[in-house]
Structure formats: C-alpha cells, structure tokens
Amino acid sequence: MDIWDKKKRSAVMARIRSKDTKPELIVRHYLYSRGYRYRKNVKTLPGTPDIVMSKYNTIIFIHGCFWHGHDVDSLVPHTHTEFWKEK
Predict the structure, then answer these.
(1) What is the pTM of this model?
(2) Which run of H or E residues covers position 68?
(3) Which of 2, 45, 63, 81 is the most exposed place for a label (fewest CB within 10 A)?
(4) Which of 65, 66, 62 is nearest to 50 (CA)?
C-alpha cells in the first residue's frame, strides 16, 4: 500500500517531529503563563509524556487527531481523499 520504497519512506518519517510541535508549544506556553511548572518529554515514564506536572501528579499527552484518526473532527485531506479514507 505504500507509494514509496523503504529508503524514501525512512527519509520522510525521519523528518516528522516527535517533540516541540506547534500544539505542544501552545499548551506549554499557556501552562507556563498561568504559573504552572512542568518537565517535558520525560523518558523515564511509560509512553514518554509530552508534559509532566509532578506537583499535581499529572501527565499530558498531546496527539494530533489527523494521525490518530480521532472522530472529533474527522477531517480528511482534500487531496488524495480516497487514499486517506482507505488508510
């Protein structure tokens, strides 16, 4: 089903950022401006949470709806629509 060979797919996937994404930055700036302090991308916890607020025993994962297929907004890209629906 992949349209690229393994080498090209690897190069494309390597460019996808796993931390400091725009949604993460927005949430972190909001929390920090409200006086909350946190640690980010803690590798010692399962799943490497994006934000850890130890004082409140809270972890936050920020996942994009597009990549995880959430039904909240169910947006399908306008180009190659059939490909994305099948995927």
Answers:
(1) 0.64
(2) helix 65-68
(3) 2
(4) 62
